[in-house]
Amino acid sequence: MLRFIKLPTLIMVLAASLVVVTPVSAEWGLNLPTPVTPIGEQILSLHNMILLICVIIFVGVFSVMFYSVYAHRKSKGHQASQFSHSTFAEIVWTVIPVLILIGMAIPATATLINMEDTAEADLTVKVTGYQWKWHYDYIDSGVRYYSNLGTDRAEILNQKEKGENYLLEVDNQLVLPVGRKIRFLVTANDVIHSWWVPKLAVKKDAIPGFINEVWTRIDEPGVYRGQCAELCGKDHGFMPIVVKAVAEQEFDAWIAENKRKEEQADSAPRAPANSALTADNADTIDGDASDLAQAAQ
Amino acid sequence: MAIAADAHHDHHDHHPTGIIRWITTTNHKDIGTLYLIFSFAMFLVGGAMAMVIRAELFQPGLQIVDPHFFNQLTTVHALVMVFGAIMPGMVGFANWMLPMMIGAPDMALPRLNNWSFWILPFAAILLMSSFFTGGGAPAAGWTLYPPLVVQGGMGVDLTIFSVHMLGISSVLGAINIIVTVFNMRAPGMEFMKMPLFVWTWLITAFLLIAVMPVFAGAVTMLLTDRHFGTAFFNPAGGGDPVLFQHIFWFFGHPEVYIMILPAFGIISAIIPTFARKPLFGYTSMVLAVTGIAFLSFIVWAHHMFTVGMPLVGEIYFMYATMLIAVPTGVKIFNWVATMWRGSMTFETPMLFAVGVVFLFTIGGLSGLMLGITPADFQYHDTYFVVAHFHYVLFSGSAMAMMGGVYYWLPKWTGHVYDERLGKWHFWSTTIFFNITFFPQHFLGLAGMPRRIPDYALQFTEFNVISSLGAFGLGLSQLLFGYIVFKCIRGGVQATREVWDKPEGLEWTLASPPPYHTFQTPPVIK
Description:
The structure holds 2 protein chains of 2 kinds. Chain A is of the alpha+beta class. Helices cover 38% and strands 20% of the residues of chain A. Chain A folds into 2 domains: 34-55 and 89-117; 123-295, Cupredoxins -  blue copper proteins (Immunoglobulin-like, Sandwich), CATH 2.60.40.420. In chain A, the strands form 2 sheets. Chain A has a 5-stranded mixed β-sheet with strand order 3-2-1-5-8. Chains A and B meet through helix 1, helix 2, helix 3, strand 7 and strand 9 of A and helix 4, helix 8, helix 9, helix 10 and helix 11 of B.
């Protein structure tokens, strides 16, 4: 049967069908997402630069190779020359890559130094990974709560239509102010997790017994979604991160309100506070702040 | 006299037949065949797991497997492909070709050779049996990071023992290769006259001896942490989970070169034959391979930038990693220069070789991007990484082995393979491979983490494309099995040289070569 289909024809048909099935739309996300932090901007421009250099090198090298594949073939009667080395060429293609690499290393190092500077933060949030949820602790004000997957189990099991933010929604979002330097202290309670929000360009492993530091400063208010990035067991794919960035006054008001409610809850007998938990977050140990956080959304 | 000599020769060729031949063989050609068959079988097993993974990821939501089993599949898929398919496959090539390339009658340590192969099937059975234990196979990824791996069931222990056995097999094989290359070269076969495939395997063998014991040590520490009350990696007992990652990647980074360096050797054998031109820059190729092997020991922490290293450490590992691009670039440029102004034809082995140079470079460049620390924070543990290492491992190592099989199959079997089907195999593999893995770059950049059984809706389209490509890629490999089977069974008699005046001692032998070859050393020009 194969005999009746010419191989080049088939390749062209396949290539054409690829073009047809890949209409590039903005929804498809071909590059890193547009960041909302200064570090994110730096990383994006670094990424775009190295990607461009790589593409140029790739196109350059393989233009030469495919020209050779086209022109220097036996079927065109090309005679093989027998040269086997050229010290000059070999030095050139050792030295030029070194120079290109140095050109890449300079901005990369600058960005890296900037990323690692967690000093003089305005606000500190301790992030703790659990199997399989996140816990947030605003160290300065004592507000703390758990953040669980908000997607209905029925959606995961295909028994119900999936919502717009399927698997990227939580019960209690992490509320952060725009314009302030926020330092995260990242750790874990059981196995290694990794706290990652692509639009903030923050990814740090949460490791039991270690406290990692990372920082961000968010420029624009909005909701930014991410996921655990280190395999942490059965529900690794089901512990998303949702950051809600709000204006500074709004954030201060939110903290004040939650602090007050938390103090009230602390002074009140424990039992009533716990019984106020809804069935949904009953598995969260100190989930008493979670309903407060929900109110702020 | 002549008759007597022939009779003597015949007697020498006697060996048991049937299954006993294969169990007791000490012949490098038989053992090479066993390794290659084992490799292909494991390639199909690991591939079947990949098919289930891609079927689950075909649509968002959970359809076919539960998340815990999904994690077992990703873990064992990787272990099977790395330790079952690629590494033994390369050893198969070494067994077949090294003695024939350096003019030796056999490997230096033939009984050890038999043993190092026959450990493998049992190690594989041990690994696969972990699926049937309580808690199933390991589900912490092939990197076996604690503390997660410590939570696993008995399957993890079986895997640890399996890794020990695989490690013993690899180290024995490596010792054999080094001893063979050092002692068994025909007179006049100086080091700098050895074919590049011999060079790459010699260096790979040193890498194996250096790092396999490190890996064995790491998994043994896991075993004692799990059962004997130690706390190497348990912070509650004063241990350090990140220590495991350092040890693992001290093994793991040279390991990726163990898988790719022999592939470089195969490519360096194929391209000159079909360009009808000597390999360009032989000396710089040898130096580049040596340089890559050295650098592979001092870059390991680039796999773990996100664990939170000191700034100086991050900068050092970034610079060291970027340096690897230089010798790797030299190799790519030298291959292109070998093709330049040649007189090329494109039989199946050459198609695979050109395909590998082209596609491996994509993986190499994405590897360079991953080495840039700040950018790596965005790529790390996403599908960008999955795309990267499949471009270097599948379209580097695996496709180089396929090219190598087509290149030497007529020599091994004495039959010409079906060229038309071979080309079909190349084109379907290449096209489906790219449909499978190229979109995964986009998925990773858009924010899809790796090792998840279910994903957010914006990742759907590329996952659909990737899964369809994967099914095609899987099916294409059945064609490969058929072509090889058909060639073993019969076909047009291959000539001694097979190709158009190829370089190398193996082409001076009959096709197929006699059971024992070079019992008197050949004369080297």
